[in-house]
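Continuing the series of single-chain predictions for the mutant panel. This is the parent chain; the variants come on the following pages.
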Amino acid sequence: MLNFFKKIDFGENLRKNLFTILLISFGGAIIYGLPYFRYDYYDAYLKTYNLTNTQMGIFGSIFGIFGMISYLFGGYVADRVSIRKLLVYSLVGTGLGGFFHLLPLSFYSLLFLYGFWGFSSLFAFWPACVKAVRLLSDSNSQGKAFGIFEGGRGIVAAISASIAVILFNFGLKKIGINLGLQYLILFYSISTILCGILIHFNMKDEIVKSNEKIEFSDISKVIKLPAVWIIAIVTFCNYVFTLSLYYFVPYGT
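Parent structure:
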């Protein structure tokens, strides 16, 4: 196995931390199952919680607003707080929110929950993921590390979505839509919390250096970089296309 890794030019850190990177990849996929599963089960979700299409749209708006605010500070926090703690708290907190979702919630309770998920799954989780993959790999193997991270996320998302469909159908045939959604929520909640626990025991705390100060002049320098705007535009277009796919379910029915 060691010779194989050497042949494909895996650095020492990447070989040593491969399992941890795979765990982080799993977390990067599974944590978004809870905030977004309502799109895949759009009609069932509307019926179960007596919602309107407008209310469903408001959930997305609240999640996005809290996420946007969180992203403004997430990178700053990720440079000053233990990456392991940020990942663990984000995963466990999001999973616990799933257990709260099992209760008979009103529209306003669900509104609070999606606001909480916007914070717990976006605040410092994504910056922490990116930084963790960078720290756990070698300088000349970061392309491979991020390829494994993103590829792993895609595989986990596909497998978890398939399992969720099986569990939903099982509950649907047994009692009805309510039980199907409960099985689905339990699956995502337990998987998310379990991933957080595994990361806690398999990832070491890095040395945090918080003495560096950030000036507004530094932010203005970054904003002026053309590469930043190119990445922002590409990311924006990607999200617009991805989120539009979620509305194929209600359109099709």
